[in-house]
Amino acid sequence: MDEGCCEVRLSFEEGSSNTVYPSKTRYAVFDKYNTSTLELELTKPAPPNGCEIELEVKPPDDNDTSSNGGHNHSSNRLVGKLSNKKVTFTGSEVGPKKIKYVSGEVSGVETIVAKVAKEDYTSEQKMRVMVPYLVSLERETDTYVLKQAGVETVNCSTNYHGDCYSMNKWIKPFFERIAVQYRSAFPKDNRIVLTDGSLPWGGAYSIYSNWGSLGNKHTYHRIGTDLDIRSKIHGDKFGNGVKKKKNRRMFEEIVCRNHGYPDLEKVGTVYEHYHIYFWPYRAKHSNICSDILKEKK
Ligand SMILES: [Zn+2]
Ligand SMILES: [Zn+2]
Prior knowledge:
The chain is of the alpha+beta class.
């Protein structure tokens, strides 16, 4: 045995999860589940001059669809943060010492690396940052169409994302029912066009491939409960929006009766669309439906 060498082991504290939500989901309940605790210990007592361990969080490979969370950027990716970048064990100490991890806003599988300073010895753990229970949609059905239906590479807010139409498993039936009910109200009109949902693993988008601007864009659309529906004629092959006044009234009512809150955003501009909220954000938006359903009486 080579005496002076340090051997480190990184593990999750008992009861701490290797799967966490992305931070800043804008939904307080989920933001409680963005942390985890790891333990760092030495597999043999530290030598007399101690051991210094360096800690680092590495991003996933952007091209690896099994771990990139749906992001395919080539820029420096934002990752979670650790409570310590360095941990020192003094002579004969073995630990364990606790390290706290807090996720970033972006989903994906990150690697937490503990490395003995100035030596090659490392120990790693994988951290899965994701919103669970997200499902993808068919590109088109008889009642709705995704903006990018029929296009090979889905161009979601720049083409750095494989899919931006994922939604929470329990939202999907409500969305499908909205589409069916709208279609049967206006069978000769266009199908509704879904222009944005969430990324496959949720979390923040980097709209312009600029990770620094995450906070401003798609503040919602992170947990699979927010959907954008086209409300204007765009003259592209993906179809028109819910545009006539009569259709809008009916659309809004259908959304409200299916537990959604249809908020018409950027009214009058080329970016106008319906942003549909569901119950996580209902406190802020419930007036939308009380007004719409009141008008109907
Ligand atoms: Zn992205
Ligand atoms: Zn939206």
